[in-house]
From TrEMBL:
Belongs to the class-II aminoacyl-tRNA synthetase family. Tetramer of two alpha and two beta subunits. Keywords: Aminoacyl-tRNA synthetase, ATP-binding, Cytoplasm, Ligase, Nucleotide-binding, Protein biosynthesis. Its main location: cytoplasm. It catalyses: tRNA(Gly) + glycine + ATP = glycyl-tRNA(Gly) + AMP + diphosphate. GO terms for biological process: arginyl-tRNA aminoacylation; glycyl-tRNA aminoacylation. InterPro entries: DALR_anticod-bd (IPR008909), Gly-tRNA-synth_bsu (IPR015944), Gly-tRNA-synth_heterodimer (IPR006194). This is Glycine--tRNA ligase beta subunit. It comes from Corallococcus terminator. Its EC number is 6.1.1.14. It is found in: Cytoplasm.
Length: 702
């Protein structure tokens, strides 16, 4: 009979950000190990709180499935002599499988004929499989930081206190350090501190709930949201939306219990971002706003236990926040005593990256690059704002407030610029050049901030690639993937038209003094090519989420120097691909491209000579092509790629007839090369939109 499996690791308070990744590791390893052992099972659920990580697997089979395998032995020549008699090699092979020589067969492989045998491999018992799997899972969790304790020669996020490992009502032996598994778990640290004996995995969630622990993260999150939303409404406000804070608090408690407090209204003259950050970063308090989104002098703190004396509890929460807000006001008042412009010089004492220099040097580079981008995008009228905002853009890094709250970079620059009398456009650009900070974040609302943000990120990308510190695997310490995606989002969102490769060249040129002594590995691509290929990879991943992969490849293959044009080409081609008659259309055009790729390299350059055409179909195709080429050019210049594709697809009948009636690879060399040049010109017409050879379509032999 199938039985349920439960694994629980009890520990001291695990950091909130560690819990979900650790559960993912546990679940992944268990599923992989059971799959390797052919052990069938049902649904897999995870549970996690600050004190526990658990996995529950339903309906685990009693044993792994049996399987019959074909095992290859020595070659037939080595296994049997000229008379067909078995050699020692055959006998030893049969003996190793506990078979007779007569039970051996023969199998033909690409390397020749080999002796083989079919053997049945029995599935191992579930208990044995799971003992190994649980051991691997418990010891294989990857934490960002681990610790050791006592005499235990192992590390974990926090000291492990207990282990539960049950298969049905049977205990499985698992050991971690000095802790051995059993069936004893623990409930809420304060509300149900005693040991709890579990009879079976199916009892786990309900048993813990009775012990004041909501072990299911999703249910605990829903409970938290419901309670804090209700508390905010009762306090006359509404919750300031912050999904990240909700996730964090969810994994800080086992039983969420909110209380509503207040702070002195005089602090409302501080920038709202400062107040929110003070409440969120240090105290994990939720902020409240009114119906217009204005911050209220209220907050919600979430306790891990129901509050018995609410006033006493609130006094503690409010006292801590009062001190934090006093610190914030001190930083704000002190920072404003020094104009933002006077802080720029101090950036020369703050290193951005050892090989690439200080923040002051970085600012000087991307300020120049932002000016270049303003010209290239036709925003020369923004040059003065770009110049001033770029100069001040990083000056808040040397303020007390940003030193305390790095998350307020740009926000404080905006506030201090306003306090110093800078134009509103300059202040806004300082703040917005950091946007978007993430995939879901808003884009800059005006050009100056957007252009400075592009320049800042391009400087980072080009500089880091040039010194050989490009992202590798999951490692991306300079967040270059995020920077690249932000550039793409800004360019497309703002509709900027400029040459990406020229911008990369400009950035590398500004970096040149810092790169003079950088040594490159033999055969390593130049920084320019590396950066552009990095963009290509990000575009492929981003656009591949909404469009066919082969269509994305086809568009990128003919270039993405103008990102806006590339996106328009992708959208137009994606619409065409969706038509029922696209398959034969793509096959016809792909045939053109394939012939050019195979034969074009042997043909000298030059123009097609229409006078050399001898067959009516090729003359007709040339006439149709000439007319289409002019119209396609008009459409492309107008960014009407759908119109360009309509003209191109109109060539299909003439292309089909050409291939049916005309021998491209004629014996006459001049005739053959003239036809290949003609097909090359047709292929170039297609390539104004996409490389059709990348499109998945059935193609007749060339």
């Amino acid at each position: 009979m199938a039985r349920d499996l439960l694994l629980e690791i009890g520990a001291e308070e695990i950091p909130a950000s560690f819990i979900v990744p650790a559960l993912d590791d546990l679940k992944r390893v268990l599923i992989e190990r059971m799959a390797d052992a052919r052990l069938k099972h049902g649904e897999v659920r995870t549970f996690g709180t600050p004190r526990r990580l658990a996995v529950w697997v339903r309906d685990v089979a009693d044993a792994g499935e049996d399987v019959t395998k074909e095992v290859l032995g020595p070659s037939a020549k080595a296994a049997f002599d000229a008379q067909g008699k078995a050699t020692k090699a055959a006998e030893k092979f049969a003996e190793s499988l506990k078979l007779s020589v007569d039970a051996l067969g023969r199998t033909t492989t690409p390397k020749g004929e080999y002796v083989s045998a079919r053997v049945e491999e029995k599935g191992r018992p579930a208990d044995a499989i799971l003992q190994d799997a649980l051991h691997t899972a418990v010891h294989g969790i990857n934490f960002k930081k681990s610790m050791r304790w006592g005499d235990v020669d192992m590390s974990f996020a926090r000291p492990v206190q207990w282990l539960v490992a049950l298969l049905g009502d049977t205990e499985l032996p698992v050991v971690f350090g000095d802790v051995k598994s059993g069936r004893t778990t623990y409930g809420h640290r304060f509300l149900s501190p005693g040991p709890i004996t579990l009879k079976a995995p199916a009892d786990y969630e309900a048993t813990l709930e009775k012990a004041h622990v909501l072990a299911d993260i999703g249910k605990r999150r829903a409970s938290l949201v419901q309670k804090v939303t209700a508390a905010a409404k009762a306090a006359g406000g509404q919750l300031l939306e912050d999904e990240g804070l909700v996730d964090q608090v969810t994994n800080l408690v086992e039983l969420p219990s909110p209380v509503v407090g207040r702070f002195d209204e005089r602090h409302l003259d501080l920038p709202p971002e400062v107040l929110v950050q003070e409440m969120k970063s240090h105290q994990r308090y939720f902020s409240l706003v009114d119906a217009q989104g204005k911050l209220l002098p209220r907050f919600i703190a979430v306790s891990n236990t129901p509050v018995r004396d609410e006033q006493l509890s609130l006094r503690g929460y409010e006292r801590v926040l009062r001190a934090r807000l006093a610190d914030g006001r001190f930083f704000f008042d002190e920072d404003r005593k020094t104009p933002l412009g006077d802080r720029v010089e101090k950036l020369g004492r703050v290193v951005w990256q050892n090989q690439l220099g200080t923040y002051l040097e970085k600012v000087e580079r991307f300020r120049s690059l932002a000016g270049w981008l303003a010209q290239a995008t036709g925003r020369a009228g923004e040059a003065a704002t770009v110049e001033r905002a770029a100069t001040l853009s990083k000056a808040d890094l040397v303020t007390g407030m940003v030193g305390e709250f790095p998350e307020l970079q740009g926000v404080m620059g905006r506030e201090y610029a306003k306090a110093g009398g800078e134009p509103d456009a300059v202040a806004l650009a300082i703040s917005e050049h950091y946007l978007p900070r993430g995939a879901e974040d808003a884009l800059p609302t005006q050009d100056a901030g957007a252009l400075i943000g592009l320049a800042d990120r391009l400087d980072s990308l080009c500089g880091i690639f040039a010194i050989g510190k490009a992202p590798s695997g999951a490692a991306d310490p300079f967040a270059l993937r995020r920077a690249c995606l932000a550039i793409i989002r800004i360019v497309l969102g703002r509709g900027y038209r400029f040459s990406l490769s020229a911008a990369v060249d400009e950035a590398l040129g500004l970096l040149a003094p810092k790169l003079a002594n950088v040594k490159r590995k033999p055969g390593e691509a130049a920084p320019r090519e590396q950066v552009l290929e990095f963009f290509r990879g990000r575009l492929k991943a981003l656009w591949g989420e909404e469009h066919r992969t082969d269509v994305v490849e086809a568009v990128l293959a003919v270039g993405f120097d103008d990102l806006v044009a590339a996106k328009k080409r992708l959208e137009a081609l994606s619409l065409l691909v969706g038509h029922a008659d696209f398959q034969p259309l793509a096959a016809a055009f792909k045939r053109v491209v394939n012939i050019v790729e195979k034969q074009g390299k042997d043909v000298a350059g030059g123009q097609t000579n229409p006078q050399r055409f001898t067959d009516e179909p090729e003359k007709n195709l040339h006439t149709a092509f000439t007319q289409a080429r002019d119209k396609v050019g008009v459409h492309v210049r107008a960014d009407d790629f759908a119109g360009a594709l309509r003209e191109i697809t109109g060539l299909k009948p003439a292309v089909d007839t050409f291939f049916d009636k005309v021998m491209v690879m004629a014996e006459d060399k001049d005739l053959r090369e003239n036809r290949i040049r003609f097909l090359t010109e047709i292929g170039a017409l297609f390539n104004q939109v996409a490389d059709f050879s990348k499109i998945q379509a059935e193609v007749a032999a060339a």
